[in-house]
Design brief:
By secondary structure, the chain is an alpha/beta fold. Strand 3 and strand 4 form a beta hairpin. It is globular and about 65 Å long. The model has no long low-confidence stretch (mean pLDDT 89).
């Protein structure tokens, strides 16, 4: 019940500040419990920054924001050592990566060198500055936003970095009721996003800990592991895919499926849990072959087709 309670409390905490995010909230909850990073693709102006700032407040953590540009340098994210005349020593001026929740806005507008500089932070929750090693927040969470690739001035993300994102979520324009609520809440000149965010109550951190413990106790039958690996093998052997699911991606799939099962109040993972979460975990990791792209297939349609082709095992829940 802890995972469901966490999702419910996040919904309540964010309900008066951000609107139209209910569809992605279960996925965000899974990412928080699984300690995974999120790649959020959406057009500009849909409230991504406000959502990330509000989520940080709800989780009781600090918020950092990195606006990516073509000339962004790695030190703009990590921070720099500056000589202090009084102490006669170099001191670290921390960059935004030292926050608990970091919004990396328009990540595909900065070059590959700077994108790659985030790999250590995302994988190890640590960074190295001038040969010194610094630990980041224990629950360090990156929410990177990405414009659609047909926007001018964007760069494709390196495959190694894409693999560090637990899942990719596509955010569409809000429904009519949600968009009207945005207008009601923020159309006054005196309206301030900061005031709304500051009023959000933080969730007790023990609930997040309990949610993780609950997900860890979810049972996974051998047939489910074999099913998940069969999906990975299908992506690797498909002639329509040049780069299939890595072992890291397969691990992300199973970790997410565990949390999804707990959210569903189940004590075991079913094939449906794997198949439901798979598109968000797998699609962004696939590199379609040129012929598949010419045929009009994108990573998501490829993923859905491959999922349909992999035989689903008949499993009975076993004692955990």
């Amino acid at each position: 019940m802890s995972v469901q309670q966490l999702q419910s409390q996040l919904r309540v905490a964010l309900s008066s500040t951000v609107f139209g995010m209910d569809k992605i909230l279960p996925l965000v909850t899974i990412a928080v419990v699984a300690r995974g990073h999120i790649l959020l693709e959406a057009y500009p102006g849909l409230g991504k920054t406000l959502f990330a700032r509000a989520l940080a407040k709800a989780l009781g953590g600090s918020f950092g924001r990195i606006q990516c540009t073509a000339d962004l340098m790695p030190s703009d994210m990590t921070g720099v050592h500056v000589f202090n005349d009084e102490s006669r020593r170099f001191e670290l001026i921390e960059g935004p990566l030292f926050a608990d929740v970091v919004l990396v806005d328009e990540i595909n507008r900065t070059g590959p060198k700077t994108q790659s500089a985030m790999l250590q932070a995302m994988e190890e929750r640590a960074i190295t500055i001038d040969r010194e090693h610094y630990l980041l927040a224990p629950d360090f969470l990156v929410i990177a936003t990405q414009n659609p690739h047909d926007f001018e001035g964007t760069y494709p993300l390196p495959e190694s970095q894409i693999d560090r994102f637990l899942m990719k979520i596509q955010l569409d324009y809000p429904e009519a009721d949600d968009e009207i609520e945005v207008l009601r809440s923020y159309d006054r000149a005196s309206s301030r996003y900061e005031d709304k965010v500051s009023g959000i109550s933080s969730i007790d951190n023990t609930l997040i800990t309990a949610a993780r413990a609950e997900a860890d106790q979810v049972h996974v039958a051998p047939a489910i592991y074999e099913f998940a690996r069969s999906i990975a093998v299908a992506t690797r052997q498909s002639r329509d895919v040049d780069l299939g699911l890595s072992t890291r991606g397969l691990l992300a799939l199973m970790t997410s499926a565990r949390v999804a099962a707990a959210m569903d109040r189940k004590d075991h993972v079913t094939p449906d849990h794997v198949k439901t979460i798979a598109p968000f975990v797998i699609a962004h990791r696939l590199l379609p072959a040129a012929d598949a792209l010419l045929a009009g297939e994108d990573p998501m349609t490829l993923t859905m087709r491959l999922l349909r082709d992999v035989p689903v095992p008949r499993t009975e829940p076993e004692a955990g």
